[in-house]
Design a protein that fits this description.
The structure holds 2 protein chains of 2 kinds. Chain A has 2 domains: 240 residues, P-loop containing nucleotide triphosphate hydrolases (Rossmann fold, 3-Layer(aba) Sandwich), CATH 3.40.50; 106 residues, OB fold (Dihydrolipoamide Acetyltransferase, E2P) (Beta Barrel). Chain A has 9 helices and 20 strands. In chain A, the strands form 4 sheets. Chain A has a 6-stranded mixed sheet, sandwiched between helices. A 5-stranded antiparallel sheet of chain A has the order 2-1-4-5-6, with helices on one face. A 5-stranded antiparallel sheet of chain A has the order 15-19-16-17-18, with no helix packed on it. By secondary structure, chain A is α+β, with helices and mostly antiparallel strands. Chain A is globular. In chain A, strand 12 and strand 13 form a beta hairpin. The relative contact order of chain B is 0.12. In chain B, 75% of the residues lie in helices and 1% in strands. Chain B is built from 24 helices and 2 strands. Chain B has 2 domains: 258 residues, MetI-like (MetI-like fold, Orthogonal Bundle); 271 residues, MetI-like fold (Orthogonal Bundle). Chain B is globular, with a radius of gyration of 26 Å. The chains are: A alpha+beta, B mainly alpha. Chains A and B meet through helix 2 of A and helix 9 and helix 10 of B.
Chain lengths: 368, 573
């Protein structure tokens, strides 16, 4: 059964400087029950707006949102269920714990609203606090607690009513990296215990990949790709998705007379086959830094510009035409700055060198 | 100038030593100024009340405090302040919520309009309401009586409730401004997380929004309370004719009746002590009732808060807002200018009775008015400049310098905030009319001293806010580039806080231009201020001229406010 379903959801804003901006465009998505699903994208891509439409804080400009069998926003019928009646749990980036209420009162709030009995409230709050490792802090005020503990309060408050769907809006981005990893694990544990559906918004690809069963990458209000983390990492659909999922090199190449060479460097060809499907005889090679091999003989000829020792690996910078490439290698092959070397590429991804629609939109928003 | 400084206090060789000297010097200077302008006058009031010569004497204080007329005026003061604070807070809160959290149209425009009554001098407002609603002669009452044939007036503004009404009109913006800005700064997700937890709009307002803006409500309500308790203009203009007195007007009356005799001033001083006791008790009580913590509710992301759909209430509530503004801003403005143009007071407000002669007279033919406008300008500019420098100096010592006893400095400079202007005026009279071989009575200098004492706190707040934003690393960077301590101060710190100082200048200039409470006790035959001029023309019964001069004063003040807004807007950009 589907738990959350979005049908051609569109959201347009009027802004002063940019005129009409389409924050979310024709969004179609089905999230399954018990699934942990991430929205990944750069800031301003529309991921938070989508989440807020699911929560009911923003109305749609077009489309429908369904929670299970119930429609909650249907623009055509002017149907709109208020956020408090959607039965969701939500955690915000800035924690949003109420400073005038104690930990217990914060977590008890959703139950009090539902007028549950005193003993019932006591029992459920105790359990939620135990699950989030907050036991013993019941009567402390949030201002006396650390960021991590405050976010645990928010989490406890979101799960205390056992909602079927939990919305998380960049919940870990205000925490330090170490704590972030611990909390990531705790969220996953909670989901395993309660089996709720999670929608997780983030701009951190590692976080999204670690947590999600499936995820999507979006940009400029448009879904780029929906898949499992591993499939998406191995087969990014376009240059943007490739770039967003990890460190990346992009090298624009041309070909003529059966040889592939970097733009303008006809005398320095690559030893790779001409990719199919680019009639304009021009394409972008996408490469992860650890998928480039440094060799002494052959390959694409260049010289070492920079060598940086980073503990787990060594990073080299080389110049090819106008592009600087980053290469990461686990073993030290003895290359030093100024040495001549060759580059060999494995697992090359090819993307079109033409600009697409979202590139144009990105430029429009930046120019004005 | 740089050369001068090098040879002056701040050579490198003597760096530490001269730094210590400079800061101590500043500190001593600050304490000295505040001691003379604030501490001494306050001490003189207590001394004047409880000592005769060098002998302790309770008689005059007991006589004054036990006088039934004074007890009545004390109750009037308390009743007026109580209702003004309560109703004013509720009204301010309601409109703040409407502008801050509902989908009412024209928000920005209305926010500006609701601040206008705050700029309006309340005693001019009281005059305007007197013209509209005085029992027999008020134009609205006359209109009502002729329309309905009633013999009784619709409303009588010359009553306790009239005074309460007019004070509410001009004081509710204190709460409005505080709460609107708290609502704007508040993180919207605090309310959203309550919605998602299942609470409806009204439950969220009650359990989340109201408790979180309580500190803002409390500080706005405190401003209303202090202002109302120490207010002179409105009860003086509306109450004198009906023998309704409050403590500030009673103090004025005592001193005025005794025409400045020492005995009268001593009685006034004794009554001032009573007024201060009432103010302190009221503040203490209010703090007990509105016990509020200080919460960090500043928003993280810039997100628009979810506004409440008013739906079918939208138009009626918009009407209510505009109606309120029309009633408290436009109606008084209209009547002031309309009466200012009448040939004689009491004539119907029709075009054939209109003339510009009153404006011509007050602006060009009355020596007294011209002197008053001149005095007010001179006083405002001098008070603003001196207070700005003294306030900045105190702020610098309090914020940046680590010297013993600076908390004393802070208390001394902020004390005049809660001391009624009329009390300060009596202290200044006791101190500067010959008690220490200097007699400034009946000159504008005595008024200037009172203004400085009263308004240094404004400049200090404004400057210390900007000083706190100048991180010490900026001065340290300058020192590391080879500049001396003094050079860093002059070339780095001062330019950075200049906008705050300029804002501080206007924050003093404008209140001084419309000031009445202090100067009404201190003026002499040649040292009237604009406020005093309006007040005395009005009490002589020259209503049309008083109205015309009020119109002129309003124009001057509005121009000043516009300048201030223009300057502070530029600073943001």
């Amino acid at each position: 059964m589907s738990q959350v379903e979005l049908k051609s959801v569109t959201k347009r804003f009027k802004t002063k400087t940019l005129g009409l901006v389409t924050a979310v465009q024709n969004f179609n998505l089905t999230i399954r029950e018990g699934e942990c699903f991430s929205f990944l994208g750069p800031s301003g891509c529309g991921k938070t707006t989508t989440l807020r439409m699911i929560a009911g804080f923003e109305d749609l400009s077009d489309g429908e949102i369904w929670l299970g069998e119930t429609p909650v926003s249907v623009k055509a019928k002017n149907l709109y269920v208020l956020p408090e009646n959607r039965g969701l749990g939500m955690v915000f980036q800035a924690f949003a714990v109420w400073p005038h209420l104690s930990v217990f009162e914060n977590v008890a709030f959703p139950l009090q609203v539902r007028s549950e009995s005193r003993s019932e409230i006591e029992k459920k709050v105790k359990e939620a606090l135990r699950q989030t490792n907050l036991s013993g802090l019941e009567w402390v005020y949030p201002s006396d607690l650390s960021g991590g503990q405050q976010q645990r309060i928010a989490l406890a408050r979101a799960i205390v009513t056992s909602p079927r769907v939990l919305l998380l809006d960049e919940p870990l981005s205000n925490l330090d990296p170490k704590l972030r990893e611990i909390m990531r694990f705790e969220i996953k544990e909670l989901q395993r215990k309660y089996n709720f559906t999670i929608i997780y918004v983030t701009h951190d690809q590692a976080e999204a990949m670690a947590l999600s069963d499936r995820m999507l990458v979006m940009d400029m209000g448009v879904i780029m790709q929906v898949d499992t983390p591993q499939n998406m990492y191995n087969n990014p659909i376009n240059q943007f998705v490739f770039g967003f999922l990890g460190l990346s090199n992009f090298l624009t190449v041309e070909w003529a007379d059966g040889k592939v060479y970097p733009v303008g460097k006809k005398d320095n060809p690559l030893d790779c086959a001409i990719p199919a499907g680019f009639p304009e005889r021009r394409a972008v090679m996408a490469l992860r830094p650890n998928e480039i091999e440094l060799v002494t003989e052959g390959g694409l000829r260049t010289a070492i510009k920079q060598r940086i020792f980073l503990g787990d690996f060594i990073e080299y910078r080389v110049q090819v035409g106008e592009t600087e490439l980053r290469i990461q290698s686990i073993r030290d092959q003895g290359f030093r700055v100024g040495d001549n070397c060759g580059l060999k590429f494995s697992r090359i991804k090819w993307y079109s060198a033409k600009k697409d629609k979202s590139d144009e939109e990105r430029e429009r928003r930046k120019i004005i | 100038m740089k050369l001068l400084l090098r040879t002056g206090v701040g050579t490198n060789q003597w760096g530490n030593n001269s730094l210590f000297n400079l800061n101590s010097l500043l500190m001593i200077l600050c304490v000295l100024i505040l001691f003379v302008t604030v501490a001494m006058p306050m001490t003189m009031i207590i001394y004047g009340t409880f000592f005769y010569g060098f002998k302790l004497e309770w008689k005059i204080f007991l006589d004054v405090v036990l006088d039934p007329a004074n007890i009545t005026s004390m109750w009037n003061t308390i009743i007026i302040a109580f209702w003004v604070t309560t109703i004013g807070t509720v009204i301010g809160l309601f409109y703040a919520w409407l502008i801050g959290r509902s989908d009412i149209p024209f928000k920005g425009f209305m926010k500006t309009l609701f601040i206008i009554p705050y700029m309006f001098p309340p005693f001019i407002g009281a005059m305007a309401w007197g013209l509209l609603l005085a029992p027999q002669s008020g134009y609205l009452n006359k209109l009502y009586m002729s329309a309905t044939g009633a013999l009784e007036p619709l409303l009588n503004i010359n009553s306790i409730w009239g005074i309460i009404f007019v004070e509410i009109c001009y004081y509710f913006p204190f709460v409005f401004i505080q709460v609107v800005s708290a609502l704007e700064r508040m993180d919207p997700t605090l309310e959203e997380s309550a919605r998602i937890a299942g609470a409806n709009q009204f439950y969220v307002i009650r359990r989340i929004t109201l408790p979180l803006v309580l500190p803002a409500i409390a500080s706005g309500a405190m401003l209303i309370l202090i202002s109302s308790l120490s207010h002179f203009g409105v009860p003086a203009i509306l109450g004198f004719s009906q023998n309704i007195f409050t403590l500030p007007t009673k103090i004025y009356e005592l001193i005025n009746r005794s025409s400045g005799s020492f005995e009268g001033i001593r009685q006034g001083a004794a009554l001032s002590v009573l007024l201060v006791i009432v103010v302190v008790a009221a503040l203490w009580l209010q703090r007990k009732i509105l016990k509020s913590g200080h919460y960090d509710i500043i928003r993280g992301k810039s997100m628009r808060p979810m506004v409440i759909q008013l739906r079918s209430f939208k138009i009626p509530l918009l009407g209510l807002c505009l109606g309120t503004l029309l009633f408290i801003v436009v109606a008084p403005l209209f009547i002031i200018f309309a009466v200012g143009m009448l040939k004689a007071y009491g004539l119907p407000l029709s075009l054939e009775n209109m003339t510009l002669r009153n404006f011509e007279y007050v602006l060009f033919h009355s020596q007294m008015v011209r002197d008053a406008i001149g005095n007010s300008f001179v006083l405002a500019i001098m008070a603003a400049i001196i207070s700005m420098f003294v306030g900045t100096m105190i702020a610098y010592v309090v914020v940046k310098v680590d010297v013993k006893g600076k908390s004393l400095l802070e208390i001394l400079s902020l004390l005049p905030y809660s001391v009624p202007g009329i009390v300060l005026a009596i202290g200044v009279i006791l101190m500067w009319s010959g008690a220490f071989y200097i007699n400034l009575y009946n000159t504008i200098w005595i008024i200037l001293i009172a203004y400085i004492a009263r308004y240094v706190a404004f400049a200090m707040k404004s400057s210390s806010a900007s000083l706190q934003q100048v991180h010490s690393s900026l001065e340290e960077a300058s020192r590391s580039c080879g500049a001396t301590y003094t050079e860093s101060l002059i070339d780095i710190t001062l330019p950075l806080i200049r906008p705050g100082m300029i804002a501080g200048f206007f924050l003093i200039f404008l209140p001084v231009m419309r000031e009445l409470t202090t100067s009404v006790l201190l003026y002499g035959p040649f040292s009237r201020t604009l406020g005093v001029a309006i007040y005395s023309i009005n009490s002589e019964g020259n209503t049309v001229q008083a109205a015309a001069l009020s119109g002129v004063a309003i124009i001057i003040i509005m121009l000043g406010e516009l300048t201030l807004r223009f300057i502070t807007r530029e600073r943001k950009g």
